[in-house]
Amino acid sequence: MHLIIFIVFAGCCLAGAVNLLLQTHPINSALSLIVVMTSLAVLYLLLGAEFLAIAQIIVYAGAIMVLFVFVVMLLNAGREERTLGSRAAKMIGLPAVVVLLALFATVILHVHGFGVSSASQPITDTAELSAVLFRDLLLPFEVTSVLILIAILGAVALARLGNGDRTVSK
Amino acid sequence: MQQDVPLTWYLLLSAALFCLGIVGFLLKRNIITVFMSIELMLNAVNLSFVTFAHQWHAVKGQIFVFFVMMVAAAEAAVGLAIIIAVFRVRNTLSVDRIDLMKL
Fold it and tell me: Which of A50, A53, A65, A112 pairs as cysteine with A44 (C-beta 3.0–4.6 A)?
């Protein structure tokens, strides 16, 4: 059962990611990225991370991708033009990616200890996670809220019409 | 609940998604799609974090993914605001035309 669900949603993930590369219109790429993120949420459920699965759907597939789609529509982004791009990216980058993938696969498949599940309690539940998050890691959590606040202010300041000085002096 | 999927498969999927993200970053010419490729890479790394958290039953791994999500949300907000600002000045989204700082 787990195997079937894994194969289906891992296939969805890879198909969405490949589709992201093949599509020329940004809105199609955004929609296929939503497919990738939602399938990843299902994989998180398989791995016993319920809270992260819900957070993945709400934060990534919900908030971040809505932001992306909104910007694509706001800027009226058309099809991307197929230019040659940088030659260095094609000449060095793509072989480097292949080498990197081969390296990852070799390490994952051959290094001892990867994929061997230890045999203590099987599933970490949300109560345990929240206990650690709100007791042991309370300070990083609060610092994250400050980070989000700064990001909101920065986004508003950057995306505002014109620069700040001009609007103040007028 | 029997876990019958080998954990290496999750790690291989994570590596494949990461490499697809790099390919998208190198080949896509629209700045928004390049940014989406970065999000794809972040997701791939999150998947390997969750896999290792499951393997060693470590809650800290999942919490790290939570923080990565929060930072990614902040990054997306600021990055898209920068894209809007760049579009307002240069009136294009193609990365070939936004190459003022290129060597």
Answer: A53
